[in-house]
Automatic annotation (TrEMBL):
Native organism: Papaver atlanticum
Protein name: P-type Cu(+) transporter
Subcellular location per the Swiss-Prot or TrEMBL entry: Membrane
Domain of life: Eukaryota
Family listed: Belongs to the cation transport ATPase (P-type) (TC 3.A.3) family. Type IB subfamily.
Length: 300
């Protein structure tokens, strides 16, 4: 496209809340045959809520909840926000006068797995089963049962390990965006295939995919695995777009021919992307591709 055509299209995009960083993304978007979607915060609203909590260790529920909250308060992940919200509510009901959150040392984010830190000398892990397995935390059959019960309901299970033992967990649910199914089916009508990649477990991932009409799912992958999937598709000669919102999506956003970040997402994702969907509405995936198709058709 000519510089003028690119400028016009970029301006038009911006006026619709689709920020296109540079001409190259705009030129590539019309060739896209596959769109890879992240799940949490991209296909789903990204505002999960805790629907159940279970404590396995002999400790007061409030203490368990406070420890999980303290660690998660340092995380930007939507699941972390759900846990913090839940803990706050519980504390307000039980002990409205205790407003403080415990201090956390050595806080670390493990993208695609969870978070960790030290709370009053205790080593705390909050995340999925893969995080527990990686840290050699045993998973009892009681924990397994709680997890599979949650996952069958399309809930995501978060485990909390304290000093190497799973002390409890939370089940969270995150509804899909109202436009998700419509957008997937519209892309299909444009001859564009949709794929879901997620760090979440297979059972929850499949349940969400079914809801939005996606048949190709890749679950339980870490951030580099997401990028590998993009490269895999590209090696078959496909132009691939990636839509994501999290730190965990940034390698894939950078690897894709066209990386699209959800505007409400994290700064790292927005930086890694070529296009930012300011309204966080999935319909703008179509807007962006459409804009590119029209811009390139006009100059031919
Ligand atoms: P998605 O690919 O669906 O956006 P992520 O890669 O962000 O998901 O996270 C994958 C999984 O890692 C989550 O489903 C959750 O089990 C776990 N996880 C990541 N961050 C956190 C956190 N802060 N607290 C609890 N669990 C987390
Ligand atoms: Mg996400």
């Amino acid at each position: 496209a000519t510089p003028t055509a690119v400028m016009v299209a970029t301006g038009k995009g911006a006026s619709q809340g689709v920020l296109i960083k540079g001409g190259s993304a705009l030129e590539k978007a019309h060739k896209v045959k596959t769109v890879v979607f992240d799940k949490t915060g991209t296909l789903t609203v990204g505002k999960p809520v805790v629907v159940s909590m279970k404590v396995f260790s002999p400790m007061p529920i409030q203490e368990f909840c406070d420890i999980a909250e303290a660690v998660e308060a340092n995380s930007e992940h939507p699941i972390a926000k759900a846990v913090v919200q839940h803990a706050k509510k519980l504390r307000q009901m039980n002990s409205p006068n205790l407003g403080h959150i415990a201090e956390v040392q050595d806080f670390e984010v493990h993208p695609g797995y969870g978070v960790s830190g030290k709370v009053s000398q205790k080593v705390v892990l909050v995340g999925n089963k893969r995080l527990m397995v990686a840290r050699k935390v045993p998973i009892s059959s009681e924990v397994e049962d709680y997890m599979s019960e949650s996952e069958q309901l399309a809930h995501t299970c978060v485990l909390v390990a304290i000093n190497g033992m799973v002390s409890g967990g939370f089940a969270v649910t995150d509804p899909v965006k109202p436009e998700a199914e419509r957008v997937i089916s519209f892309l299909k009508s444009m001859n564009i295939m949709s794929i879901m990649v997620t760090g979440d477990n297979w059972a929850t991932a499949n349940a969400v995919a079914k809801e939005v009409g996606i048949t190709m799912v890749i679950a339980e992958t870490d951030p580099l695995g997401k990028a590998d999937k993009i490269k895999d598709l590209q090696s078959k000669g496909m132009a691939v777009a990636m839509v994501g919102d999290g730190i965990n999506d940034s390698p894939a956003l950078a690897a894709a021919d066209v990386g699209m970040a959800i505007g409400a997402g994290t700064d790292v994702a927005i930086e890694a992307a070529d296009i930012v969907l300011m309204k966080s509405n999935l319909e703008d995936v179509v807007t962006a591709i459409d804009l590119s198709r029209k811009t390139l058709a006009r100059i031919r």
